[in-house]
Amino acid sequence: MRRFLYCRDPLFLTGCAAYALNRWAIKPHVHNVFLHGYFNDCWLMPCALPPILWLHRRLGLRSNDDEPSVGEIFLHLVFWSALFEWIGPKFMPGTTGDPWDVVAYAAGAILAGLWWHRPQPRVMA
């Protein structure tokens, strides 16, 4: 298994750049429901999980530097979905839960999982 690069992971870096580009350059000028409501939500897992797993590793809560496991991805998807779309709106005035956000989080989690677990290229000897 490949060593996970945490905040140097190419998907993490791409996601952070895409988020920033959408947030500050595209959304103010393009009026599109997906770009305004869900594009950045798709990047939750690729952008939030690597630094969280790095912290878990430093705190001794993670015993390896492997790519995120399916269990780690799923556990964080469930936790963040509940936190942002159910618990948060109950305690933060002016916020509402949106089930489509969870769909976007899940889509990003699936694509990130596929990226992190893509087959390794064969090395010719």
Plain-language structure description:
By secondary structure, the protein is mainly alpha-helical. It has one domain. It is built from six helices and no strands. Helix 1 crosses helix 4 (44-58) and helix 5 runs antiparallel to helix 6. The longest helix is centred in the middle third of the chain and has 22 residues, at 70-91. It is globular. It starts with 9 loop residues before the first helix and ends in a 9-residue tail after the last helix. The relative contact order is 0.16. The model has no long low-confidence stretch (mean pLDDT 95).
Structural class: mainly alpha
Q: What is the residue-averaged pLDDT?
A: 95
What is the terminal separation in angstroms? 19 Å
Fraction of helical residues: 55-70%
What is the β-strand count? Answer: 0
* Low-confidence segments: none
The geometry reads as: globular
Sheet-strand content, in percent, reads: under 5%
Summarize the structure.
This protein is mainly α and 125 residues long.
Write the layout of secondary structure elements.
Elements lengths: L9 H17 L6 H5 L1 H4 L1 H15 L11 H22 L7 H18 L9
Summarize this structure as a short list of keywords or feature phrases.
mainly alpha, 6 helices, 125 residues, globular
